[in-house]
Design a protein that fits this description.
hydrolase; threonine-type endopeptidase activity; 10 helices; protease; threonine protease; Glutamine Phosphoribosylpyrophosphate, subunit 1, domain 1; five-stranded antiparallel beta sheet; alpha+beta; proteasome; 22% strand
Length: 336
């Protein structure tokens, strides 16, 4: 990994030299800080239009496939791992957004307090799910969250500009389309993200799925990440449109718990949000281990019991079966 960085990246000295040469062809102009002032003023004008640094190769897409496509080459230099669980669903009372808080680097838990919900504006939420490199904890945090974090924050800026220009909030459909167009322009250049844009506009609650390939889909229920199959198992069983708010919150908690209990790359805690007509509301943070042994506590929608099945059936097994019901007499030959 370090040899690849050394080969295809610039040193600090090379970057500084390039920056200093931006306007040297003009006799009176150069991009030094002394000439252009501080970065807080007009100093950044001398550096040209900001752009992302990509590998200095003819075809970045081919470069990434060469070193990261473990499906074609199991011994590839960089292995991309996926690990998280996020979900969102619409119901008659708005949108429920639930995520876990674990970030992993291969088989190691790098962080248990990752915030995987981006508060784009008071009426829009975005979720974080992406790719992580096992080589470094730093790359893990950057790759797993930075793509979604950056682009959804950037989206928030344009949503605000839209509101100032048009005198009304941007719709969820338009916000998701804007994000889809942005990430599609970087397709094949290393972006790794699968996000849900959730909000409430004049058409009501909406959820859109957007990924780094530019895909964009509208739906009532989505789950993204390595634990999504476990979350879908709970969601498919308990979801309906006429859920009450406490029932919907409980469904979100149980779904993330199921993913955290069964998927090694999901866990630590569940962050729960409720999007309603007046904007989003943070419901709470719930420890997954505590929910397994004790339940979520005294919260609306919960029945007060532990989520873990092994807690519910403690002391009852084939070696220690429950007592037979007294009023159920067994049939004998004389009863026939």
């Amino acid at each position: 990994m370090h040899s690849l960085l050394t080969r295809f990246s610039k040193t600090a000295a090379e970057s500084e030299f390039t920056r200093s040469q931006v306007f040297t062809d003009d006799g009176d102009l150069n991009s030094s800080d002394a000439t252009w002032g501080s970065q807080a003023g007009f100093g950044n004008l001398g550096y040209g239009i900001p752009s992302f640094a990509i590998p200095e190769v003819a075809d970045p897409s081919a470069f990434l496939r060469m070193y990261t496509n473990d499906a074609a080459d199991p011994n590839c230099r960089i292995k991309i791992n996926h690990g998280t669980t996020t979900l969102a669903f619409c119901f008659q009372g708005g949108v429920i957004v639930a995520v876990d808080s674990r970030a992993t680097a291969g088989s190691v838990v790098a962080s248990g307090t990752v915030k995987k919900v981006v508060e784009i504006n008071p009426y829009l939420l975005g979720t974080l799910a992406g790719t992580a490199d096992t080589t470094s904890f730093l790359l893990l945090i950057v790759w797993c969250t930075a793509d979604c974090q950056y682009w959804e924050t950037y989206l928030g800026m344009h949503c605000r500009l839209h509101e100032l220009r048009n005198g009304e909030r941007i719709s969820v459909a338009a916000a998701s389309k804007y994000l889809s167009n942005i990430v599609c322009s970087y397709k094949g250049m290393g972006l790794g993200m699968g996000t849900m844009i959730c909000g409430w506009d004049k058409t009501g609650p909406s959820v859109y799925y957007v990924d780094s390939d530019g895909s964009r889909m509208k739906g009532n229920l989505f789950s993204v990440g390595s634990g999504s199959t476990h979350a879908y198992g709970v969601l498919d069983q308990g979801y309906r449109w006429d859920l009450s708010v406490p029932e919907a919150c409980e469904l979100g908690r149980r779904s993330i718990y199921a993913a955290g209990h069964r998927d090694a790359y999901t866990g630590n805690s569940c962050n729960l949000y409720h999007m309603e007509e007046t904007g989003w509301r943070f419901v709470g943070n719930y420890d997954i281990s505590t929910m397994h042994y004790e339940g979520p506590g005294d919260v609306p929608g919960a029945d007060g019991t532990a989520y873990g099945y092994d807690v519910r059936v403690a002391g009852r097994s084939s070696a220690n079966p429950p007592e037979p019901v007294a009023d159920e007499a067994e049939l004998t030959i004389s009863d026939v």
